[in-house]
Amino acid sequence: FVSSYFDKYFYALPEKWGKPIDVGLFPHGAIGVEFFFLLSGFLMMKHIDSNDESRNVVEATFQFLKRKMKVFYPYFLFSMVLAFITRLSISQFDKTHLALFCEEAILEIILVKQVRFGNGVWLNGACWFLSAMLICMALIYPVLYKYRNSILKIYLPLFCIFCLGVLYSEGSLVASRSIISKEYRWMLRALTEISIGCMCYEASRFINSLRLSKLASIILGILEVTGYLFVIAFAYRFKTLGGTVFDYMCLIVLAVSITITF
Fold it and tell me: How far apart are CA 11 and CA 28, in angstroms?
């Protein structure tokens, strides 16, 4: 309920008043979504490596997605209820708004909103990256499970370079010049960063296989902490909500820090 209140005060009411409110400790906190996607890809690749290779690809993919949903879905449903109540409380309570919110709520609950179903009204802001994560994992997981080495070492690096070029031509990771719709752009962002997370896992395995000296371990630890602090400082310092091209620098720094962490 506290989260619902803050959502109502800091997000919904400015929308109703027609003017933004310059508040927030981390104005560019949206960069945290990059950490979410990178870590999701890293853990997905770790799960693939720990899985029984004799299992059917379809069964393995289904069980992985089922396990992911069991972790977050109860909390997600609770947040959906709060978001629905909050939206109704600040809108004109009539049949039109109620029908619109019900339609959007159903699409968000089944996590298909990210493929542009619905009217573009998001009741729960967290829905888009959860939807994008599951859809992208459903695309990547079976291919990596079946053709791990060739996909991970050849196709994913080339794919990520291509996608990052497309995203960069559109602007920052957070904002865009609207050449393609924001939903498809967010999906490409998720697909790219989850793929990078998979490659981070492979790089982490390589580092862990090395017999590093104590000095080398200390240097890596310093780089790891410095990387996270850099991204936190970036989120705190930059107040342009639309984002900047420095998002890509933060993405690289986060990828390196996550690789070292594990």
Answer: 15
Q: Which amino acid is at 142?
A: P
Give the number of other CB atoms < 10 A from CB of residue 189.
26
Task: Find out whether 117 and 35 touch, Cβ atoms under 8 Å.
Answer: no
Half-sphere exposure (CA, 13 Å, Cβ side) for 100?
14
Over residues 55-112, the pLDDT tens digits come to 788 988 999 999 988 888 888 888 788 777 777 776 665 666 667 677 777 777 777 7
What distances in angstroms separate CA 250 from CA 3, 33, 81, 203, 225, one per listed residue?
A: 27, 11, 33, 18, 13
Measured torsion, CA atoms of residues 163, 168, 173, 177, in degrees rounded to the nearest 10: -110
Q: Which residue is listed with tokens 């309570």? A: 93
What share of the chain has pLDDT > 70, as a percent?
Answer: 71
- What would you report as the CA-atom Rg of the chain, rounded to the nearest whole angstrom? 20
Q: Which two tokens stand for residue 244?
A: 């900047």
CB 50, CB 202: distance < 8 Å: no
Helix or strand or coil: residue 103?
helix
